[in-house]
Amino acid sequence: MSSTKNIFAVFKREFFSYFNSPVAYVILVIYLLAVMGFCFFFGGFLSTDDASLTRPFFMWHPWIYMVLAPAVGMKLWSEEHRLGTMELLMTMPISPWQAILGKFFAAAMVWLIALTLTFPIVWTVSYLGEPDSGPILSSYVASYFYAISCLAVTSAVSAFTRSQVICFIISVAICLVLTLLGMQQVVDAIIKSLPASMEDTVRFISYLCFLSHFYDMSKGLLVFRDILYFASVITFCLMITHYAIQSKRA
Amino acid sequence: MIQVKDLRKMFGSKVAVDGVTFNVKRGEVLGFLGPNGAGKSTTMRMVTGYFNPTAGSVLVGGVDMLEKPELAKSCLGYLPENAPLYSDMSVVGFLGFTAELRGLYGAAKMKAVDRALDTCFLDSVRNQSVDTLSKGYRHRTCFAQSIIHDPEVLILDEPTDGLDPNQKHEVRNLIKRMGETKAIVFSTHILEEVEAVCSRAIIIDHGKIVADGTPADLKRRAPGADAIHVVIRGFAGSGIRAELEKIIGVEKIEPKSCDDSSFSGRVLSTHKIKPSELALEIAALVSAKSWKLEELHREEGRLDEVFRSITRSDVV
Fold it and tell me: Of B98, B86, B186, whose CA–CA distance to B147 is shortest?
């Protein structure tokens, strides 16, 4: 019970800190402009004769999260290191895991708000046609898991450095690799440039990347396997965060 | 309340703290002294559970910090060096957050926050954002979080650093007052603070305890402590210094100014004679010779002299 309260106390502080500064507002505005801009100008939302959001709307999300999720998460631990408040937090009667989860949930909540604010596009497509709600719902779930997986990667990186800029650059680079390696064109190009014996290895690595699981989920199937994949990635990244925090205290 | 045994901390191959052992009881204020880089903050960070020790044990309120860190941390309050704060919060918001982490909610939380604001004279800035506060207020805000749950043990790392003389005086009084019912450890570079506040002091150097005792005990270890300071006026050709040297038990005479008819300086006694007895002997000599005794007092010894004599400074 007290552990839930501790997680909630950390969550509350972290969540309001996003909205006490312009960070959350700027990111939310940029995100909404980006998803809507891509949807209307590059996704051909109005010219596609299809009342589905998968192609025109959701297919751009991974590329946006790749940059914006690290922007939300880069302060998670870097800021604590820089301000010295890490010492304060770690000498409170809470476990490192409670602090990690509280902070992660707060950043994840920012993305939940961001995704919720995209509701006008769903309302628009429902008004213009009769979309299948299954793929829309599963795409939203896939999109959210993608965002918080990028966030978990950023959390792990931020636990190692006190510089938010370094954290941002490294996190974007990791998310970029995890996204690009999931693209069929990139995988094919890599396979072509490597010996034929390496094909299975490349395909396996590609399967471990975010994008292929995102595509599977956004097809309208909430596959347990894909949800488990994203949950494992998040857990693994948070374990690295825990390791980084503990190693600085060892 | 605090039991530290054989505490050792290594950073790579560098030994930061080397076998530190001490106990602090309730009602005791322990001053932690030492040159920069001596291992004071590292020791405090291990006592508060921020650093894991390489070896040794820390018990706070009888609870092992390594075995049950959360329980041990719940009975202590800690003011880290440089008083770190979340700059995007208000004073009252920050204290409310720390109160919640200390398990205080609802009315108990509000009461604790109000008490801490009141104790640390922060009421006038309660709704102000932390990043707009002056250094003194920031320090007091961080101090307030350390006492928010009225802990039995307080660990304060340089609590008066950066404060103006009035604020220093207030904080010292606060520590002294709280020290009557709590076990307090605080580190400082200001030696008069130790004399004013502490019931005991430890001097640490190169990661080891080099002195442990009451401030009065430590002062007695100063070079020249217990010397008799005298100013005597005699007559031309009195030979005051030579006469003083004849007193049995005089080990050494350190004149500040000495001429044919007067003497001013220190007279150090051997262990064979008590300083008070030596003072009486000097007074008797002055009386017998019909000299004038302008000053005669026993020197107490100074903490800064003790500090300098027992800490090996790296500064050349």
Answer: B98
